[in-house]
Amino acid sequence: xxxxxxxxxxxxxxxxxxxxxxxxxxxxxxxxxxxxxxxxxxxxxxxxxxxxxxxxxxxxxxxxxxxxxx
Length: 70
Prior knowledge:
Layout: H1 3-9, H2 13-17, H3 21-48, H4 54-69
C-alpha cells in the first residue's frame, strides 16, 4: 500500500475497531480518492516545474507531498 493511501486511511481505523462495516467502506473509498488527489497534485507540480529554478520548485513539490502524507 502506498504511504499516501495509508496516511489518509488512518481515520478509518475507528470504524474497523467498532466493526462498523458500512461506515468503514465509505471511509476507505473516500481515503482512496483523497490519496489519488494528493498524488495527482504532486505529479502536476513536478512536471509543471520549469525555468532556471526548476530544482527548487521540485523540492517544494516533494516537501508538500511529504507534509500531506505525514
